[in-house]
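Dear colleagues,

As part of the handover before I leave the project, I'm documenting each prediction I ran so the next person doesn't have to rerun anything. This entry is a single chain, and its sequence is reproduced below.
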Amino acid sequence: MAVKKDLMNLEKKQTLDNLYSVYKSSKKEIYKKVASMLESSRRNMISVNLSKLEKLNNVIEGSIVIVPGKILGVGSLEKKITVYAYSFSKSAKEKLAKNAKTFDDFTKDKIDFKKCVIIK
């Protein structure tokens, strides 16, 4: 169990380092904001159901949703959006298919920051 915990911490540290380095090179505040939200403890990590994303008014067709936490597969999502998150449950990944992306993709992809919505 301790080995798995250490690997999770290492993966999270690498993700945070990557986000901060992209922030320093691009000077886009969104990377710093997401990294600081992701630094919280596991107990305070955000988890969002697909049904919540469907109900939110500020998430419209074509939006880019950023969740510094985990996406859970409860409910369905009819909106055509791209979701960047730290992790996904197995059912959420299946339901989102191609629109589920990690923070590694977030730092590499060309993104229109005007369409971004950060879920807290």
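The CA atoms of residues 33 and 87 lie 17 Å apart. Helices lie at 2-26, 29-38, 50-55, 90-96, 103-108.

All the best with the project,
I.
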